[in-house]
Amino acid sequence: MLMRTDPFRELDRFAQQMLGSATPGTWSKPTAMPMDAYREGDEFVVCFDLPGVTPDAIELDVERNVLTVKAERRPLPADVQMQVSERPLGVYSRQLFLGDTLDADHIAAGYEAGVLTLRIPIAEQAKPRRIEITGTGDRQEIQA
């Protein structure tokens, strides 16, 4: 249903573990936008952790079967005197390839407590359905 788009993700994760965490002020690819994805009934649910990002700084785009999530953690106003700055800032994005079994035209998005939740319905043609068999005898139904 969902295909990863970053073939080097595991290599990046391994390198990060071996070499330490990302440089302060930059967003490391593997941990910038952690994601969970699961099926719940007739929907596919994808949750992205986006702490410190305001809803107006999130963009969602679907082109063909590619879903792009783009977010920006913005700096504090210029009139503040920063004492410690360890939280990364900047723009980052993540792309997911949606399988043909998902209905990309009816994606619902919600944002609460720093978590972006996308609900993607399973396409009607991908759902199991009953096919009626007719013949000379009694009518029978089988699961397709």
From TrEMBL:
<feature type="domain" description="SHSP">
    <location>
        <begin position="26"/>
        <end position="136"/>
    </location>
</feature>
<protein>
    <submittedName>
        <fullName>Hsp20 family protein</fullName>
    </submittedName>
</protein>
<comment type="similarity">
    <text>Belongs to the small heat shock protein (HSP20) family.</text>
</comment>
<dbReference type="InterPro" id="IPR002068">
    <property type="entry name" value="A-crystallin/Hsp20_dom"/>
</dbReference>
<dbReference type="InterPro" id="IPR031107">
    <property type="entry name" value="Small_HSP"/>
</dbReference>
<dbReference type="Pfam" id="PF00011">
    <property type="entry name" value="HSP20"/>
</dbReference>
<dbReference type="InterPro" id="IPR008978">
    <property type="entry name" value="HSP20-like_chaperone"/>
</dbReference>
